[in-house]
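Running low. Any example?
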Amino acid sequence: MIVEQVLENKTNYSVDKESEKPIRSVVKSISWRAVGTLDTILISWIITGQVKTALSIGGIELVTKMLLYFFHERVWNSIKWGKK
């Protein structure tokens, strides 16, 4: 069922490239980092036992990984390999 849906929704590279605007990558980055940051804060809190330290680690991680993800996503969006 999932494979059929994927095959039915196939797009070519130029259509996909135009449909994936940078703002979409920004929104995806934010939503993914929210989940990841909550995970990092929880792990940091468990390890350190200090909420303040956990929030500091999570805050730094939020910004750095969001920027890294955005540029990673944009680079992969420009690579033709694996797309038809």
In short: The mean pLDDT is 82. Residues 22-84 form one domain.
